[in-house]
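Please predict the structure of the following assembly.
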Amino acid sequence: MKKSIPLLVLLLGLAYLGSTLLPPRAKSDFDLRGFGRLPILVNGRLKPLDTVARNTLLVFQGKQSFTAPDGQPLQPIEWLLDVLFNPAVADSYQHFVIRNPEVLALFGKQGGTQEYFSFNDLRSGLTELERQERMAEPVDDAARTPFQREVLDLYQRLVLYQRLKASVNLEDSPDFLAELLRFEKSLPAISTAFLAKEAGKPYNAQDYKTLTDFVSRFQYLSDSGYLLAIPPAAGNPDPNAWQKAGDALLATFRQGAINPDVMAYGALGHAWRLKQPKDFNEVVRLYTQQLAQRFAPQLEKCRIEVLFNQAQPFYSGMILYVLTLLLALISWLKWPDMLQPAAFGLMVLAFAASTAGIVTRMWLEGRPPVTNLYSSALFVGWVAVALCVILERIYRNAIAAVAGSMIGFGTLLIAHHLSLSGDTMEMMRAVLDSNYWLATHVVTVTMGYGSTYLAGFLAIIYIVRGLFTTSLTKDTADSLTRMVYGIVCFATLFSFVGTVLGGIWADQSWGRFWGWDPKENGALIIVLWNAIILHCRWAGMVRQRGLMMLAVFGNVVTSWSYFGTNLLGVGLHSYGFTQGTFTWLVGFAVSQVVIIGLAAIPLDKWRSFRGAAAAT
Amino acid sequence: MRAFFKLFVDYFTSLRLTVILLALSLLLVFIATLDQVNLGVWAVQQKYFRSLFVMARIPGTDVAVPVFPGGYFIGGLLLINLIAAHLYRFRLEWRKSGIWLAHAGLILLLLGELFTGLFQREGMMRLDPGTARDYAESTLKTEFAVIDTTNPGYDDVVAIPEGALEKLTTLQTPKLPFTVRTLLYYPNSALVMRNQAPDAAPSPADRGFGPQFVALAQPVTYKEDEQNFPTAFVELAGPEGRLGTWLVSTLLTEPQTFTYQGHTWELMLRATRYYQPFSITLLKFSHDVYPGTDIPKNFSSRVRLQTPDGRVDREVLIYMNNPLRYGGFTFYQAGYQNDRTSILQVVRNPSWVIPYISCSLIALGLVIQFGIHLFGFIRKRAVAAAAA
């Protein structure tokens, strides 16, 4: 019984993870997976359409799940198909989330309960929105009011929406494919007219007008389109030379024939709108086959990325961390012999899921694990949980399981919130385009952050258990102290080495090892604080309780360095001030100071120490 | 007397002092970081880190008083504390070898930062293709250049640093046949055409471009992406009397010419130049963006490095994370303009190697020290597990 419960829990966890890898039950006759795997170039990165669909939904409404007006849930790729090819239907989809009452007032919708709006809902207020945007845009980012930020954000979302609609389809065309075919048929005539006019000879005015009409329509596609959906032509040596449909069409006059890939998208749109799954699937199959001849490795990457999108390993990690936390907390109260190994097993599974997610991202990007704020949050959690897996294996008292699951869940949640601005696998700016430094400096510093947070959380466990429960026995207190001390040593080493590597990178890039930049100062403060903790301990200035109080303050110091320095608006790591981040940061700092204050309560008043001599 | 000395030694070698100093330095760095929003990074460095005390004005007066120990004070005391602790308390034994190494590295690091503060010099080179340049320009400091251009083969430059102009005194040097007296100095200014501001007071300048402009003093800016444009009114006077008053400003890109005693002179207020014994010529600047975006992918400058004696003449590629180190200078790809003009940052820092050495020492020391702890811990647990 004792051994079989943990095993059962482990198997259930494995089954859950395995289920995330299975493809969704095909409820549609359309080959949605095949379409979702098609690669396009956006923001400098070649990615599958499935990623574009999910990221755009996150940007528009903060979540990937969408329900059509008729109540049917739509997969992200179905939603995107409507946006791309069925604009009249997409205009009725309520996918723009607006909560700011002043912005709602621009559309006459304040005071109501509606939060999600369709493009049709917003049409009447567009002119007014544009006017507000023109006033808000020149204002310095740091000085913008929340209303101005919301206006700009909504405006950019609407622009993105319009640009998506103009990527592979013309909105006002009743049948874009028919228009393309008409264009193809008229090519010889209009080319003749064009050449004749250029040569100053008599030309057919009707044909010429047809030419200029087509050109202006394709120019619109070229100007407004967002996706670079058309692969480079067969002779082009540059694999990154993808182009917009509009540009490919304008190049027809040079090529002499319409780009067949543009026709493919036209055919896809036609089949989707007229609900012809057989034709749709056939075009997907043929187009994929053709891409495979020259872009096989890219297609494979897209296939894996779609699988990754669907599996959502970080979401399943979050679920498993919550279950771990529950089991671990209960194991402190009852049945520790059964529940501790069960919690440990689930934590290892959650860790495996996040590891798989991080490794997949590394492979897709071709980069070390930390490349932006989003991936740093993932990695900070990963490091802390890795240390907790080791600690739990050594001490087996579910303390590390509680700490690890809390930090794991917390960092994945923070990462999720950081993912709402779009593609988290961005291209690296020139100075960051160095895998060597990304792998050494950034990884080490993030390990320093993760371990300082872990020391802080273990200290919180000590304080909470000691103050409010009788479970902080001498053995538990001693092992917690050893854990915290060991992790602080680890944190000192890694935050120091990480900071130094940052200095060396700066010396190679900008000519100075140390520039007193806010981020650099933040890293220095973490090293100083960890050094203070160790020196206080060696000087005998603090004992167990004091050590814990100092370690909890390490959470505040690390949060300042990690997020606070980004808010100042100066320096090389400035991302601009956001009210939301500031509020969370202050709230978190206050919560930690409250805990430290609680720990200052005289030891003989702690529930675990009442009656016993001061257990220091 | 001995007791007093012992008290002194005890205090300066104590770990308690170390903790206090570390805490003070943490506080100093934090406050300085917040102030950076107002003052910009360079002014903050001077105020908080390269000073003995952080000064603040008593509100309502012009009196500056020290309110907090500055970087040199805390750093200096930390250095004394560290060295004293090692001299008087630490025994040289294997068990403490990690700490000895780490602290030795730390001493070296602190000293290195001190030297960098004293000796480092930064400048920029803005190069158009084909331009050969043998000097870098400071981004912060300006100089008043009085140039004798009489000889067609060379220019004789006397460069007066802005600090001398700021003092509003009369400068006399045997290198110039006239004195230079600064009447007015604005650290930041704007120039307006006089015909746009007809009500302005008459200009103190009576020669050169001065009379055409009205100079308006502006508040000094500390923002990183903004620049200050100093302006000064200087009066030149020879032994027979004054030659005239000129307006000089970094906003005037053309020099002002006059003749005196058979020599032709040019006057310019310009960014301070740091000359190098070699020249850099930009051959080509390349700049890629990620397709379909504005995100910069790489910058690189292909330059030609030449010495006047012809001994060195080679091509070098300078790009992000890959600087050129030559002759005690380091050249970094800093930025660009208009896709053709490359901007290189030039740094002369003779102590650049010190952080590398010191940080290796500290890292090694930490690894050894924590490694000793870790192995001790593992061994103890193995013994306990064997006994159980």
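The CA atoms of residues 305 and 314 of chain B lie 5 Å apart. The mean pLDDT of chain B is 87.
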